[in-house]
Amino acid sequence: MHIDCLVVGYGLAGATLVRELLEKGLTVALVDDGTKASSQVAAGIVNPVIFRHLTPSWMADVLLPFSRNYYQQLSDLLQVKIFHDTTVLRIHAEGEQAHWVQKQSDPCIAHWLGSPTGQSIPGINMTYGASRVNEAFWVEIALMIAKLETYSQHQLVTLCETFDFRELQLSTEGVRYKSINAEKIIFCEGFRAGENPLFRFIPFRPVKGEVLILKIPGLAEDYILNKDVFVLPLGQCLFKVGATYDWSDLGASATTKAKETLMDKLGKFLELPYVVLSQEAGIRPAIADRRPVAGFHPLHKNVLIFNGLGAKGAMLAPFFAQELVRLITEGIGMNPAVDPIRFTRTLNP
Prior knowledge:
With 349 residues, the protein is α+β, with helices and mostly antiparallel strands. Helices cover 23% and strands 28% of the residues. The longest helix is centred in the N-terminal third of the chain and has 19 residues. It is globular and about 65 Å long. It starts with a strand and ends in a 19-residue tail after the last helix.
């Protein structure tokens, strides 16, 4: 079998990339073992503001409108509601509102910082006020990936297995994996990329994240609340609360420590009783410099990678999946900030 592209991994990176490849008319095969990815747990919140410093998220002026349009169109294509326009309500700590108002005069971020609201929310401690974030939204990532897989299945050759590097052969003409000959191979392995022998020069720094699913009767569902943790309304009094960041424990199981951390942070502003229904954990595929990685291997010109989307994956994935496909089909170079070549000073030829 001869194809254009062999894609390894089908989380958020793999799903968005496969769609773009198929849209360009390329033939694609997929290798994925069905292991639960962090994208199955991710809240999918797209927020242009970094609250710690009140600065814009990286490339937000480009990525935010692009991803918004992408998910809206994808909702129409798949005929399922995966895109949810919403408002993030930042609950201020002491002194934070004054800083917020000051930053509203900063043209780099002002249009995303809504005015402080005098509105109260029953059951929420808003002693120091709250402000809206404009243009935020959230995406049902797990649902999107599942629907994309179903939508594309007749166009894909899929091997449901763990990728075996012993079966991979590289040459100047292309790559061979078992019975598949491909022009290109693209690794979208998520946190498993650290085990890939071809990309050991990239400083992967995976981080475990955990969330809770709560039932909170009486809490308004009009906003995504944020104060140290997010509270994302799912409907019918259900809310997703998260998330933790743990660089040391990369086990797949949810932990009591994370549960207690989330409940403690939530208790600082939630004044309503709730029931914990479930807890989920996932490993985010992050990189030391906090930028994704997308592009060709510096030595093997038929090998590419798309990884490192981290906690901002919902905003990053659509744009850089498209850029990567343009690199493959048109030779248009990647943004140097995401190109794997930025790490080649540690690579021994």
